[in-house]
Amino acid sequence: RRNRPEVQLSDLVTSLLYEDHPRRAPLTAEKVQAVEAEQAYRLFKERFSGAGDFTFFFVGNIAPERLKGMAARYIGSLRSGSEEEWIDRNVRYTDTSADEQVTAGMASKSSVRLLHCGPYQWSLQENSLLSSLQQLLEIRLREEVREKAGGTYGVSVSAGPSRYPAQEYLIRIGFSCDPERVEELIGIIEDEIQRLAAEGVAQENVEKVRSIRLTDLEENRETNGYWRGFLQSKVRHNLDPETLLAKEERIEAVGSEELRRAVEQYLLEGTRVEAVLMPEDGEQETKEAQEDGE
Question: In the chain, at which end, N or C, are there fewer CB atoms within 10 A of the end residue's CB?
Answer without folding.
Answer: C
